[in-house]
Specification:
The chain has 13 helices and 16 strands. The chain is an alpha/beta fold. The strands form 4 sheets. It has a 6-stranded antiparallel beta sheet with strand order 10-11-12-13-9-14. The protein is globular.
């Protein structure tokens, strides 16, 4: 074992915190370095650890869903941040939705209990000793240059968008109604639109004033998180079949399904803030006020946070990373989180777990672990480390895992894939320490 070694972890976001906590669980000292709040990014609002920048939803919890399966696997592998989400969860239907501030506080408490120090300083150069770079998609230019210079590659990027948040008491509840799709609870507020109201909103979105982007920047928009106005440009009906689909919802005031709906999701346990689901945007603030107040029930909406876009940095993982999340140029340097080319909160946590476990094992001179390709976690790792000239950031999805031997379709196929993955994860768990963790 490397004596008296502390793993230096750059970035106290989701991946960095999970990596640090995994080091501690495996008996290795870790120290987190975080530049916020002294040096802020264009998307963060606080200096809190594990701040959720975009949505407060960590997506589905159902194993038959790719994101739900990844969560189930992380539970088997002892993910600490997943435990924190359960203690700060708020109603969100089948999705795992948390109170942002309470979640960050819970993660901070876990770090404190594990004796992990958070050093508030900006790191501009890659350390020359055992380290994990988990600085995230908003890595500072100096650190990004240091990392790519060491790796001998160019950094890549895409543009991501976030949705506005409105005050709950500014929503007209004479218009909006509480319901989840197909009668599964009442966790969302729904603003119903007629065909005429929908057409008017789409027409206005097509003409609205946007924050300018260069041509090459527009080609770097991330498909799973496109701005609402970009979706509107893809066809008049796109929103009605996308984030505004009314399927499974009935307006109790009319007894009918609306033509379209705008769903609002709780941002905190108290229910004082609501997020406009699927309405990430690069509209100018004045235009957001004008257009989104056209939505029935939001005519007097008070905006607590406006939607915006920000640039996300990532590496071409297949060029520079091993499945253990070690860099190819230095076995004592690991990368975690969205820098690796995974996209999404839970995917970032997963990368942090892998880097943390393997950095701890490296420190103890133990064999590093790779995860079964039948699992969603193993599939993600294989994707971001397998040669691919068309490499782009990736969310969890069933296309990442090997096909089934037997024929199956739809829900049955996903059920069988999930069962196979969880069985593989359960069998693999003992590999981490030679016994259960």
């Amino acid at each position: 074992m490397l004596e008296d070694v502390t793993v230096q972890i750059i970035g106290a976001g989701l991946a960095g915190c999970e990596a640090a906590l995994q080091c501690a669980k495996h008996g290795v000292s870790a120290r987190l370095h975080e530049m916020r709040p002294d040096v802020q990014t264009e998307a963060h609002r606080t200096g809190d650890v594990a701040e959720l920048v975009c949505s407060n939803s960590l997506k589905s919890t159902e194993p038959g869903n790719a994101h739900g399966l990844l969560k189930a696997e992380l539970g088997i592998y002892g993910c600490v941040l997943l435990e924190c989400t359960e203690r700060t969860r708020i109603p969100g239907g089948k999705a795992l939705v948390v109170d942002r501030q309470r979640f960050s506080a819970e993660v901070q408490s876990a770090l404190d209990d594990a004796g992990i120090e958070v050093v508030r300083e900006e790191i501009k150069e890659i350390p020359d000793k055992l380290a994990i770079v988990a600085s995230g998609p908003l890595t500072s230019p100096e650190l990004a240059d240091s990392l790519t210079g060491l790796l001998g590659v160019k950094r890549l990027f895409f543009y991501d968008a976030i949705a506005p948040i409105v005050a709950a008491d500014s929503i007209d509840m004479n218009v909006a109604f509480a319901a989840s799709r197909y009668g599964v609870g009442q966790d969302y507020l729904n603003c119903p639109l007629t065909r005429e109201q929908y057409d008017r909103l789409v027409n206005e979105l097509l003409e609205a004033e946007l924050h300018p982007m260069k041509d090459f920047e527009e080609r770097c928009l991330f498909e799973p998180c496109l701005p609402v106005e970009e979706l509107a440009r893809r066809g008049k009906e796109t929103l009605a079949f996308g984030p505004m689909k009314p399927v499974g919802l009935v307006d109790p005031k009319t007894g009918k399904r609306p033509f379209a709906v705008v769903q609002l999701r709780k941002e905190n346990a108290e229910g004082t803030m609501f997020n406009l689901v699927g309405f990430q945007t690069r509209l100018k603030r004045s235009e957001q006020k004008r257009l989104f107040r056209m939505i029935p029930g939001l005519d007097k909406a008070e905006f607590l946070r406006f939607g915006s876009m920000h640039r996300n940095t990532y590496l071409h993982g297949p060029e520079v990373l091993l499945p253990t999340l070690q860099t190819k140029v230095r076995p004592d340097l690991f990368v975690a989180g969205q820098l690796t080319g995974v996209e999404g909160y839970v995917e970032s946590i997963a990368a942090g777990l892998v880097a943390g476990i393997n950095a701890a094992r490296f420190c103890k001179s133990e064999d590093l672990v790779q995860f079964p390709e039948q699992t969603m976690l193993g599939g993600l790792l294989k994707y971001i480390t397998t040669p691919n000239q068309e490499f782009q950031p990736m969310n969890a999805n069933f296309g990442l895992v090997p096909v089934l031997k037997q024929k199956a379709r739809g829900k049955e196929k996903r059920r069988l894939l999930a069962e196979r993955a969880l069985e593989a994860a359960g069998q693999d768990r003992s590999h981490l320490n030679g016994d259960e963790i």
